[in-house]
Amino acid sequence: MSDALVPIGLGLATLVVGFLVLYLLRLILRRAARRTQVAAALSKHGRKPAHLAVVALAAHLTIVGLPRADWHRAAQHVLLLVDIALLAWGAAAVLAIVIDLALPRFRTDVRDNRNARRIHTQVSVMQRMGVAGITVLAVGAMLLTFPAFRGAGASVLASAGIAGVIAGFAAQSLLGNVIAGMQLVFSDAVRLDDVVVVEQQWGRVEEITLTYVVVRIWDDRRLVLPTSYFLSTPFENWTRTEAAVIGAVELDVDWCVPMEPMRAQLERTVKENERWDGRVCALQVTDATGSQVRVRALVSAGDAPTLWDLRCDVREDLVTWLRTTHPDALPRVRAEIDGSVLPQIAPGPQPHRHDHPRHQEQDAEHRDDDHGGDRAGDDGEHQVDGAEDGQGQEEQPPLRHLVGDRHQEGLAALTKKDAVLRDRRDQQS
């Protein structure tokens, strides 16, 4: 029992001293990180592997000092696996530290950052490939520590070709995306922070891996696409060669819009806007059909988000200018009504003269005149008829205005019919 207390105490002391040293180093690196990037990278990526190294060292010192037992060999084998994992983790941490020290030299917060974004994209993918390679080597080394796997190495190598073919068919989609990801990165077709339009969505490339690409859409949603999508489907890359882009603002206005004042207003608007980069400012008529004229204003900005805000500002200013200074240039619909081209309207059935109450009274008067032979009744009838004719003549002009010249023939026929009826009544009387 006394032989076991010494190695256990040594292991505990190693843990305490080791964690205390790591804590002091952490404080030192945290203060130094404000002045140097090396300290910041060591503090970020080396802290967890260092803690695991202290635990592994304490375990080694404890097991080595303990008396031999049946579990001693199994414990040493577990520690060997931990050592392999620790080495792999340390190698991945060193790779991350080197990349963190190298990438800040290529700044992406400047206007012309195309080369920097290309390097960031390629380095990030190479880092993932390096970590994957280290993981595969570590797993292989762990498997070789088992005697069963070591003895079956020859048969495994012999069947590697057949296994590779089977794995290729089984993981065809995965391997296709991996190959597409490598081709996508090293062909410089798309980079980190590129402004792209995919699936009718505008966004920025936020992450590129060997199997998928993450696009951050303008409303902070994420669109995840396989890497093979960018090799098989056309997409728009607004920052392929440079970040500066040109945008259009289209307005539908009336034919009487004053182009020169509107062009001058556009120039004043962009010159007063800090988002305009001073490259492009133009106003063109792109279409003139129907009742409207389409006007397009071209403006430019340093990047896509700035261009979007500039387009909104220009559109708002031009709409306000048209509404306040030239309201007659706002879109409107004109219509000219010509009576000669209106469709013919068949006159409805006219009521018979004898069906009207007034005409019935007149007919009764005529009958009285026939029996009495009073000439004065005839004169009264002629006066009544003349009044009715005058009334009809007063109603004709608005009727002619409504139905058009083509319907005057029908009106003349009705007038002639009324005249014939009056003559017959006169003869009878």
TrEMBL record:
GO terms for cellular component: membrane. Residues 174-240 form the Mechanosensitive ion channel MscS domain. InterPro entries: LSM_dom_sf (IPR010920), MscS_beta-dom_sf (IPR023408), MscS_channel_2nd (IPR006685). Its main location: membrane. It comes from the Bacteria. Keywords: Membrane, Transmembrane, Transmembrane helix. GO terms for biological process: transmembrane transport. It is found in: Membrane. The chain crosses the membrane at residues 6-29, 50-66, 78-104, 125-146, 152-175. Residues 358-385, 402-429 have a biased composition (Basic and acidic residues). Residues 342-429 are annotated as: Disordered. PANTHER family: INNER MEMBRANE PROTEIN, YNAI-RELATED MECHANOSENSITIVE ION CHANNEL. This is Mechanosensitive ion channel MscS domain-containing protein.
